[in-house]
Amino acid sequence: MDKDARVQSTIDTLRQHLDIDRVVVYTFNSDRVGRVTFESLSDRQLSILSTSGADDCFNSEYTKLYEDGRIRVMVDIELEPIQSCHREFLRGLKIRSNFIVPILIDRKLAGLLVAHHCQAIYDWSAAHIQVMQATAQDLATIGNL
């Protein structure tokens, strides 16, 4: 199985296991601009594949936090203490609940593994955190995303 097929299979399995609407791999280029390079969907209308850039609120400070291993869990974006521009960005992607885990290769941020639930809030558990972290580590072993 080639690298792309392995990544796709991994995120398809994760999405089905978590029973959520969307899982994406968001990767960065050398200028730290990113884009969605892989996605797994419960509904094709939720596709954000190849969406590039990030919301205007995502800056180098956030990149550093993720490079340091930050995990971001948002059960309900409407109740999270986030900037309004970030909330609007998430709404535009039809996200209600959001979960982000860094993908680190040689301690460098290669990308983000992101889980979205769009239809309702999703109560992420400690088990979900473990599964997401293990999946991000699996993706890192595949290599350059």
Supply database-style keywords.
5-stranded antiparallel beta sheet; alpha+beta; 5 strands; 145 residues
Radius of gyration: 14 Å
Number of helix segments?
4
- Give the integer mean of the pLDDT values: 89
- Silhouette: globular
Strand order of the largest sheet: 2-1-5-4-3
Distance between the termini: 15 Å
- How large a portion of the residues is in β-strands, by DSSP E? 25-35%
SSE topology string: HEEHEHEEH
Structural class: alpha+beta
* Strand elements, count: 5
* Uncertain parts: none
* Biggest beta-sheet profile: 5 strands, antiparallel
Helix content: 25-40%
Structural summary, described in words:
Helix 1 runs antiparallel to helix 4 (126-142). A five-stranded antiparallel beta sheet has the order 2-1-5-4-3. It is built from four helices and five strands; from the N terminus they run H-E-E-H-E-H-E-E-H. The protein starts with a helix and ends with a helix. The protein is an alpha+beta fold and 145 residues long. The chain has helices at 3-18, 60-67, 84-92, 126-142; strands spanning 22-28, 34-41, 72-74, 97-105, 108-117. The mean pLDDT is 89.
Secondary structure blueprint with pairings:
Elements: H1 3-18, E1 22-28, E2 34-41, H2 60-67, E3 72-74, H3 84-92, E4 97-105, E5 108-117, H4 126-142
Antiparallel strand pairs: 1-2, 1-5, 3-4, 4-5
Helix pairs in contact: 1-4
Q: How is this structure best summarized?
A:
The protein is of the alpha+beta class and 145 residues long. The protein has helices spanning 3-18, 60-67, 84-92, 126-142, and strands at residues 22-28, 34-41, 72-74, 97-105, 108-117.
